[in-house]
Amino acid sequence: MKLIEELYNMYRTKLTGDEEDIDMLTFAVLEQLDRKEILELLHDMDEQELTNLMGLYIIESLKGKFAQNSIEAKPTYFSPRTFH
User: Fold this and answer.
1) 41-53: per-residue pLDDT in tens?
2) CA angle 51–52–54, rounded 5-degree value
3) Whole-angstrom Cα distance, residue 1 to residue 7?
């Protein structure tokens, strides 16, 4: 994707590439884009890029749902013990 190449070339010498830097850059870019611009970027993606994007979205969304439900739905049970 052209946007990724541009961002990488612009920031490869300025950022370390760790997860925190990438998150910061990603959210900064997303703040600047409106819905129409995001849809234009999606329209310009090839089939594999769209598939990868949807795959990541599904994976991360399901991880979030399972994590949220495991926190809410799993009470802590203590097994009965005999203390002497």
Assistant:
1) 999 999 999 999 9
2) 65
3) 10
